[in-house]
Amino acid sequence: MQLFRFANPDYLYLLLLLPVMVVLFVLNEIRKRKSIRKLGNSELVRKLLPEMSKSRPIVKYLFVLLAVASAVIMVARPQFGSKLEEVKKKGVEVIIALDVSNSMLAEDIQPNRLTRAKQAISRLVDNLTNDKIGLIVFAGDAYTQIPITTDYVSAKMFLSTIGPEMVPRQGTAIGAAINLGLKSFGPDEGKSKAMIIITDGENHEDDPVAAAEEAAKEGVVIHTIGIGSPQGVPIPITINGRTDYLKDHDGHIVITKLDEDILKKIAITAGGNYVRASNSNIGLDEIFSSIGRMDKQELESSMYTEYNDQFQIFAALTLFFLLAEFAVMDRKNRRLANIRLFKFKV
Fold this sequence. Notes:
- The protein has about 350 residues and is an alpha/beta fold.
- The protein folds into 2 domains: about 5-80 and about 310-325, no CATH class; about 95-295, von Willebrand factor, type A domain (Rossmann fold).
- Helices cover about 35% and strands about 25% of the residues.
- The strands form 4 sheets. The protein has a 6-stranded mixed β-sheet, with helices on both faces. It has a 3-stranded antiparallel β-sheet with strand order 1-2-13. A two-stranded antiparallel ribbon has the order 8-11.
- Helix 7 (about 210-215) links the parallel strand 6 and strand 7.
- The longest helix is centred in the N-terminal third of the chain and has 21 residues, at about 15-35.
- The radius of gyration is 30 Å and the shape is elongated.
């Protein structure tokens, strides 16, 4: 399977000109038709201007739009990967365990805890170069969302789909997330493996400190990020298009509070740091700075090292659409006006 990419993807923003060009064309056509109506009856004007065509200007402009689109894609330089090689780099394996329980929908961190955490992870992935990253989601159970990889594009794509609905059992099983993370690292031994747990810390399912002790034995450092407020807030939910708050079996509104104590214990046990998130700073940058000081290990990954340009196709299409626009006349040709290739007698 070849990898497709654009060498200059920023130029693709020029495609936003297309809807603007369409709006300008429509406004110009409206203005022209108003001007023609001022000349008199539309039937009379049509007889006075028999060569005037309604469709030809539209066809010509369509070719212009297609030419612009092809030209933009051409300068963005579409490419296919042509040579796949095993590349060795030195870096750290990092697994992020993200809490996706309903409590992460609380809005004490704007716009809510989960969305803010996903935004911070996305920015972190943008800054990665040599390190491998994996993603685990957990609530009542833990699941691998992204296996450990250097494919940062796919990591961001899967990250955008994460939500509470993807884990069937609610709860907060931090210990299960740690245990799954230990199984997800590569087989190489070394001190270049770290986990980052992002959660409100309300663990109800297992013993995360015992899991952290096991991680420490295997040389895995665990950092924790507490997201939420210790005072507690309700959890907004949408029912039949109406916003309400999550309630327990007795009908009381559920209040979710940040449990910093358990997260501090996990971090201390596994040799990591604890950071409390805020609206202005989730804390991933500080933790990753600490991870960056860890000893690096040699990581192997497959990547494309050569790419073949495919812009020639779009250059040819641009030329074709421009020639087609030039060939289509604004007005009807008198010599060809009476030719009806598709007119049949019934």
